[in-house]
Amino acid sequence: MENSVVQITARTPNPNLQIITNGNPSTGQSTRLGSGFVYGKQGHIITNSHVIDGASTADITFIDGNTYTAKVIGKDTSGDIAVLQIIDNFSPENLVPLTIANSSSLQVGQQVIAIGNPFGLSDTMTTGIVSQTGRLIPNPDTGFSIPGGIQTDAPINPGNSGGPLLNTQGQVIGINTAINSATGAFSGIGFAVPSNAIIRELATLTKTGTFNHPWLGIAGGKITPDLGQSAGLPRNYKGVVVGSVQAGSPAEKAGLQGVTQSDSTTTQHIGDIITGADGHPLRSIDDLINYIDLHKSIGDNVGLTVNRHGQIMNLNLVLQARPPSLGNQTAQESILP
Predict the structure, then answer these.
(1) 287 is annotated as an active-site residue
(2) Do the domain assignments include residue 75?
(3) CA nearest neighbour of 236 among 245, 227, 246
(4) CATH number, domain with residue 302
(5) 279: left (phi > 0), else alpha (psi -120 to 50), else beta?
(6) How many other β-carbons are positioned within 10 Å of the β-carbon of residue 201?
(7) pTM of the predicted structure, to 2 decimals
(8) Which of 50, 61, 214, 248 has the fewest CB atoms within 10 Å distance of its CB?
(9) For position 149, which CATH number holds?
(10) What element of type H or E holds 201?
């Protein structure tokens, strides 16, 4: 993977760090270390958006130690994908672009390889398997989840973010992006943004600098046994319980209803239960988010099958562009399409 995977060093102003030089105060800088990989021969580097968050340029260092400046030409904060382009003369480097594969063909148990710069240790390779696919990766920066995530047990640590997750043919199947850990160190569960998301966004990010996701506008969750029993639903009933509906959203315009509370009591009444989207059955909120984000676009129509207090109805809505963030919503509320 020489001249294919790079170390990325991004520096951003830190207003909490004040430096006094000759009696003159100035704002210090924070440094982020991450990884990235070469795409094409024009000096494009793909990485995570959070690696370069707040920076307009970054240093790109190859395995031979050569460093070049790259500018950020596109980023999708919500999907955690960014594209950089080297602006220095990089002709001394024999760039070796990586091939991006189709992540929809991944199988649980398939061997994978993670390459990156954990703790600044350049060009480190670790191996593992695909533990599961279709995971929702929480994104606390926006409040929205990243759909279709690949779960892997290949060791991923700070500094690996933005590096490629490869199949055994050396093709990119994802971007290493997060770990599930209480300590910040790898604990056996890592996540990668699927390569199909890269394929979908790359041309738009490179051309316009941004990418807009389709938006439904609900907060929802699964049907627990207690909830199903209290609502009089059949055992093992599947669907998405609508908790709340965002103001001005496609869901509100279509008439979806969330949980309501009686004016005179504290009793809550269950909201709509979405059981299907465009004829596809939904088992959980994961199915709905993955379907909307990976298979639909802004302006598309979506037909929802809804159970409202035992009455089955069909609601049609038109998807809008997702807002930049959900404000101060918690990470748990990122299970919102």
Answers:
(1) no
(2) yes
(3) 227
(4) 2.30.42.10
(5) left
(6) 22
(7) 0.85
(8) 248
(9) 2.40.10.10
(10) helix 195-208
Q: Is 295 a catalytic residue?
A: no
What's the distance, CA 121 to chain centroid? Answer: 25
Asked if the model's pLDDT at residue 163 lies above 50, the reply is yes
Q: Are 241 and 273 in contact (CB under 8 A)?
A: yes
DSSP string, 139-158: -TTTS-PEEEEEEE-S---T
Same domain, 161 and 196: yes
CATH number at residue 53: 2.40.10.120
Tell the residue number behind the tokens 């990119």, with chain if given: 172
Residues 151 and 222: their CA atoms lie apart, in Å, by 21
Please indicate, yes or no, whether residues 329 and 219 belong to a single structural domain of this protein.
Answer: yes
Active-site choice (103, 161, 195, 249): 161
266 is a domain residue: yes
Domain that holds residue 41: 5-15+28-86
The pLDDT value recorded for residue 314 is 97
Active site residue 161: yes
Tell whether 130 is covered by a domain.
yes
The DSSP H or E segment spanning 57 is: strand 57-61
The DSSP annotation for 283-323 comes to: SSHHHHHHHHHHH--TT-EEEEEEEETTEEEEEEEE-EEPP
* Catalytically annotated residue among 49, 50, 76, 293: 50
* C-alpha to C-alpha distance for 301 and 124, rounded to whole angstroms: 45
Same domain, 202 and 228: no
52-73 confidence digits (pLDDT tens) = 998 999 999 999 899 999 999 9
**Do residue 223 and residue 178 come from a single domain?**
no
Q: Which of 158, 173, 208 lies at the terminal end of a domain, its last residue?
A: 208
Q: What is the structure's pLDDT at 253?
A: 96
CA distances from 15 to 18, 25, 32, 56 (A): 7, 11, 16, 17
List 80, 272, 286, 293, catalytic entry: 80
